Amino acid sequence: MRIVCQKCAAAYAIDDRLITAKGVRAQCPRCRHLQLVRRDPSAAPAEGAPAPSSQPAAPATPSAPQQAAPAAPAVPSGGDLFGDFGSPPPAASPPPAASRPPQATAGAGRPAQAAAPAAGSDLFGDFGAMPSPGPASAPPVDPFASLGPAAPGAGAPPRPGEDPLLDFLGPAPAAPPAPVARVPAASGGAPVTVAPPPAAATPRAAPPPTAAREPATSCRSCGKPLADSFDQALGTCDECRQREPARKAAPSATAPAAPPVAAAGSPDFLPPLTMLEEGAAASASAPSAEPRPRASMVPSLGAEPRSSPRIPISTDIIPDMGPEPRSGARAVPSLGAEPRSGASRISTVSSQRMAPIQSTGRTGGGGRGVLIGGLVVLLLAGAGAGGYYFFQKKQEQALRDAEPLAPPPLPGEVQAVLSRWKLKHLEVSGSSAERLAEGQTQLASDDRFAYAEAESSFQQALLLDPRSDAAIAGYVQALALGRGAGLDDATFQEARALMEAAESRSGRTASLLLAHANLLLTRSRQADQVEQARKLAEELLALEKVPDAQKAEAHLVLGRAYLSTSSELARNHFDTARQLAPDLKRVPYYLALAHESAGEYSAALETLRKRLAANPQDWDSLAATSRIYQEVGEPSEARKLYEARVKAEPGQLRALLPLAMLRYQTEGNAAAAARELRALLRNRARYENQEISEVLVHLAAAERSAGNADAAAKAAEEALQLVKGLPEAHFQVFMVALGRRDAAKARQHFPGFQGRLEDAALEKVLEGRLLLLEKKPAEALERFQEAVRLDGRRLDAQLLAGVAAASAKRREDAFRALNPVLQSDPLRLEPRPAVTRFWLRPGETVQGMEGIILALAEGPEDPSPLLYEGLLRFHQGDLDAAERHFRDVLEVDSNHGGALAYRALIALREGDTSEARALGQRAVEGGRQMPVAHLSLGLALADGRQVEPAKRALRDALNLAPGLLSAQVKLAELEPPQRRDAARDTLVKVVGLDPTYLPAKRLLYQLER
Fold it and tell me: What is the CATH number of domain 722-940?
């Protein structure tokens, strides 16, 4: 029958006689696919096919002569695992069968046994039992030949190496003159006698019909004749297989002398797939044969056409009948673990394959099994090592040889600044490393003007190398140290974004942590920013292998963070920084600031003088010394410092400009300051535009202080023409527009300095003033309230909040906002720095707000609008108007404590001590729960040198309002010399609460002297 493979469509032929009634499983010789083949019901049974019979037959005697088998069709060695690749070249024809003795197929000294089945008849039964191809001229084997001893000449000398997969395990023994069994290399394989493949590719003619054959084999267990070909192949009947499953145990040590033999050339049917894994039978010892060349064991490719008929290699489909009993010739010692499963298996090969094992008489099979097992282990180890080399090593090498990954894209923050800096630096020369080194040198100079140059150098370094995080760290460091508290909010946020981008690329390195901490310290009035800066400095000190210079910088950051809370801790950190880096120029400067925060002004001035003596060009130390002298009430000493610098360097603008600022900011001589500034502008050819713009800004402030609004506006606008976006110039134009009630112009210039003031609360106050001018009182009220939250010292913001509520006709809200002002310190309207770029006259933030509160009056008998209007006029400095409003209040309520107290304070400013004392006494009597009444009485008594009554009145005021700083300062002033330490402690406490409260600083300096 011609079969077409269902999987690969290869065509092959099966003898019809091999197909039983139940069908057979045929295996494709190309792809090894198994498929069920049934007999065509319309076809007649094959001639000469054995009829299955369940009747028992007499067992065949091994020595009985066998009937001559008919000539069968020439078939290839169907058991050849690689039969498709061709057959070996033809060999010499064997001698005639008549010339050989009947025992040719048996070993010497053994009974004659049945010949092995057809070559390769069992493909999957036992890999170790694969036969080797015989000569091409060997006669074909009839798969249904009579069972029994092999006829003379029925076989041919076997060819070792039939199984190419297992051929590498070693050569098979040499063949004796008669056909002998070859011991396959696989563990547990049984030696087989093979028939040579056909010489021709086409099948031979069918043999003539022969007489019917009788079963010549019987069951090895019960002796019942076996009629079914499958039972013959297994050597046992179906009943014995089902009755004795326990026979699967270990094989016996000895083999029976005369096992039943199979018919020569009977087909070795394929057992069920579950039986394939049961293992292979152990082989008995046999004499070694001379190995043949390995090449002779492999069939030549292409020797057999694919279309040649094949002997079927599968049996009919039957249910699993359990393991085969280990009897007869199969009960031989095991050669070791089967390579596939590692356990002793039971072979499914037929009994006729066991006959050659007994005939060989070999010994020492266990040693061969151990050798084979060792070879398998070595092969597995070699395969693993090869796999590791060819896969893991190759992958690692491929990774090493691969091209480097493309760099990640630049962060958006970096791209944003680069696009702007490219317009600023049109021509950038050199390399990024050169610009980086230049910036580091400028940073090391510790000069405020050098910091601006360092900013430019680091910007160019980043333009040349956008991935340089060192350039980002240097730029932010120069920005923070150079601009300090004057750094605007937009630049602050931009620098912070750059730091976060750099930290995401390079990690939290020492340089990045240091620059980030210094940046946060520019917001020293925000406690959360200062605390974060302290944590960053501590993180830097916890790093390993940090240079001493960076450790010193970290201690400087920690000292600056503790300046406002603990001067002792600040000094300790500054001392540590000086020990780590003695040449760090900023250490003496910050140490002087620590002395100043502790109220040790003499020590601070001494430290700065030493630094100036070592470096007269240290303009930061010179400016700090001048500022301290002005705050402690010694402006003449500050003037001497700059005059000395002018003598040393005539025409030096850094010394001439501070002298003019001293005129109008401290001495109050705005006209003289304007003259000096105009004199500097006559030599403007000697200065750069940036320097000229600074002179023009201070000229605008001086002219505005002198009441020349037009001249002030002209100077500020000229400064903006020279340097666009100068925040100080925008500020002066804004203040002029605010005084003129020009809301449009004020709104135009407000963004120019928004976020760039050194005082965030002051910015909210000015924005609220602008909103009031724009008739937006509700929004203005929100800004004033936010200013109070930012800085509780701003009494002007509280006043303006009441004015905004009054503008919105919200009477109750207005009085609710103004009442705390009445209970606050009347001698401190707002914090005022001694020296600033954004100059404001005293009380200028509340100028122009008069008359709004009076609109809330419900009649002439309503004293509250008059009282709060008088309070506003008092802080504006209009004492006459304030006195008038307070008198109006007293006409309605003659015992009003608040009105009497402020009238007493007005009398003190005018020098009428007796009137002030009388008004103060009346104020206390009319409002004993009003702290301002006790304060006014205490100040009047102190001015009249009544120390003890004054101290009692001041203590009463502090009991009602502990935040009255003026009362604390006056009490310290009244302390006798014996209690100087107590007075000093009080003043230091006041300075800690408000560093801009100048009366406390002046008294402290006097106590030290």
Answer: 1.25.40.10
* 544: CB partners within 8 A, 6+ apart: none
CB 897 within 8 A of CB 926: yes
Question: CA 890 → CA 25, 659, 811, 858, 928, distances in Å?
Answer: 127, 47, 21, 17, 17
The CA distance from 753 to 732, in Å, is 10
Distance CA 767, CA 775 (A): 13
Residue that is written with structure tokens 């100059």 in the block: 839
- The one-letter amino acid at 396: E
Q: Which two tokens stand for residue 771?
A: 């909103």
> Residue 801 and residue 134: Cα distance in Å, rounded?
117
Residues 702 and 659: their CA atoms lie apart, in Å, by: 13
Domain borders along the chain are 1-45+69-97+113-385, 412-636, 722-940
pLDDT at 332 over 50: no
CATH number listed for the domain at residues 412-636? 1.25.40.10
pLDDT of 116 over the 90 cut: no
According to DSSP, residue 566 is labeled -
SS3 513: helix
Q: Which helix (H) or strand (E) covers residue 36, if one does?
A: strand 34-37
Residue of 616, 660, 657, 662 whose CA lies nearest to 637: 662
End-to-end CA distance of the chain: 130
Taking each helix axis from N to C end, the angle separating 448-464 and 412-424, rounded to the nearest 10 degrees, works out to 110
The one-letter amino acid code at 591 reads L
The number of residues making up the chain comes to 1009
Name the CA radius of gyration of the chain, rounded: 57
Q: Which two tokens stand for residue 127?
A: 């890999």
Look up residue 756 and give its two tokens.
């760039």
Q: Give the contacts of 614 (CB within 8 A, at least 6 positions apart).
A: none
CB 574 within 8 A of CB 590: yes
Contact between residue 866 and residue 898 where contact means Cβ atoms under 8 Å apart: no
**What is the DSSP track for 308-320?**
S------PPP---
CB 533 within 8 A of CB 517: yes
Distance CA 519, CA 488 (A): 12
CB 535 within 8 A of CB 561: no
Q: Could you tell me if 594 and 607 are in contact, meaning their C-beta atoms sit under 8 angstroms apart?
A: no
Give dist(CA 775, CA 769) in Å, integer.
10
Please tell me the least confidently modeled range out of 191-200, 450-459, 478-487, 927-936.
Answer: 191-200
pLDDT tens readout for residues 408-440: 788 888 888 898 999 888 888 889 999 999 999
Distance from C-alpha of 973 to C-alpha of 942, rounded to nearest angstrom: 10
CA 370 vs. chain centroid, Å, equals: 55
Q: Is 64 exposed, middle or buried (0-12, 13-18, 19+ CB in 10 A)?
A: exposed
Select the more confidently predicted residue: 222 or 473.
473
Could you give the residue ranges of the DSSP H alpha helices within 321-364? 355-360
Q: In whole angstroms, what is the distance from residue 767 CA to residue 751 CA?
A: 10
CA 508 to chain centre: 14
Rounded Cα gap, residues 728 and 176, in angstroms? 117
The SS3 assignment for 26 reads: strand
CB atoms within 10 A of CB 22: 14
- Single out the residue of 207, 206, 149 nearest to residue 178, CA to CA: 149
Label residues 375-404 b or e (16+ Cβ within 10 Å = b). ebeeeeeeeeeeeeeeeeeeeeeeeeeeee
17-47: per-residue pLDDT in tens?
888 877 888 888 888 888 888 876 655 444 4
In whole numbers, what is the pLDDT of the chain averaged over residues? 75
Report which of 418, 560, 573 is spatially closest to residue 484, judged by C-alpha positions. Answer: 560
Tracing tokens 């005084």 back to the chain, one arrives at: 739
pLDDT at 389: 62
Rounded CA-CA distance 655/635 in Å is 15
Shared fold status for 412-636 and 722-940: yes
